[in-house]
Amino acid sequence: MSRQVAVIAPTSLLDWLQSQFQLTFHLVLTKRCLEDVAYMAFYRKRRLEGDFLILDNSAAEVKAAIEGSSMMDVAKELCPSIVVAPDVIYNKNETLKRTEGFLKKYWFDLKDLDIKVMAVPQGGSSEEWYDCYQKFNSDPHIDWLGISMFYTPKFNQRLEVLKLIASTVHKPCHLLGLWDNPYDLLGERKFDFVKSVDTAKPIEFALEGLTLADWARHKHIDDDWYFNTAGKDLGPAASEVLELITKNVRDYVRLFEEGL
User: Fold this and answer.
1) Is the CB of residue 223 less than 8 Å from the CB of residue 234?
2) Is the Cβ–Cβ distance between 161 and 151 less than 8 Å?
3) What strand order describes the sheet that includes 173-176?
4) pLDDT (mean) for 32-61
5) DSSP per-residue string spanning 114-169
6) Residue 60 — very low, low, confident or very high, per pLDDT cuts 50/70/90?
7) pTM of the model
8) Which pLDDT does position 152 carry in this prediction?
9) Cys-Cys link to 198, which of 13, 27, 44, 214 (CB 3.0-4.6 A)?
10) Mean pLDDT for the stretch of residues 80-97
11) Cα(66)–Cα(57) distance, rounded to whole angstroms?
12) Average pLDDT of every residue of the chain
């Protein structure tokens, strides 16, 4: 599998973005699927076209993952390539409990649907995080590891996490999200086991009139506004905003895939 970037877009811009880039790799948020009929319909179509879908558990949006039963309802309808098992940010024990419970209850159903499982290590300290990682890395029921942007403050940078596991990891890894500085990827992409990343930053930046180089001026954008409102009415500057989104997405993909 070559390196892949999943661009997380507002519902109103999904069709336009697809027309511009013919994307075949996507991260799909369970929370949005449960709340937004148009969002769900778009990704159902993408899967029918053969695209690669990672069904995320929305832990980053709600701080504790969507319940397994709701995730499975969406998984059965979308039949994604990968489903992200439930995790709880910074909480090793709850993450282990929820992931193990999810596997125990749904692993055979997922296997029958040919859906692979991604688990996300969590911990309140670097020691807890690494212990959780070791358990997931050795579990034969887990196919991928998700390395969250919420890795734990003790590590300072996700790059430190990747260095820590480089000699022992034997599963492909997906980078879940990105903080504001896109150039963090220049270090993170150097590891062969890092296969993919997802982010909304190229579009968020463009909505503020920023390029990737302007990342330090980026301000927090509310998730509900981003998905439900952003892109619906770009006003008289619509063409300029769409042009900037195109540039940012293209630059971001080149940054991760080629290191340029």
Assistant:
1) no
2) yes
3) 4-7, 194-199, 173-176, 144-148, 116-119, 82-84, 52-56, 25-29
4) 92
5) T-EEEE----SSHHHHHHHHHHHHH-TT--EEEEES-S-GGGSSHHHHHHHHTTT-
6) low
7) 0.93
8) 65
9) 27
10) 95
11) 6
12) 91
Give the confidence band of 45 by pLDDT, cuts at 50, 70, 90: very high
Domain boundaries, the chain: 4-200
Helix segments in 6-117, DSSP class H? 14-21, 30-35, 37-48, 59-62, 68-78, 92-112
Task: Report the topology of domain 4-200.
Answer: TIM Barrel (3.20.20)
| The two structure tokens encoding residue 197 | 């990343």
Q: Is the pLDDT of residue 67 over 80?
A: no
Three-state secondary-structure class, residue 175: strand
Report the pLDDT value the prediction gives residue 145, as an integer from 0 to 100. Answer: 98
CA distance between the termini of the chain = 20
Cβ contacts of residue 129 below 8 Å, gap of 6+?
92, 121, 122, 123, 151, 152, 154, 155, 161
What's the pLDDT score for residue 1?
Answer: 63
User: Up-side HSE of residue 251: CA atoms within 13 Å toward CB?
Assistant: 19
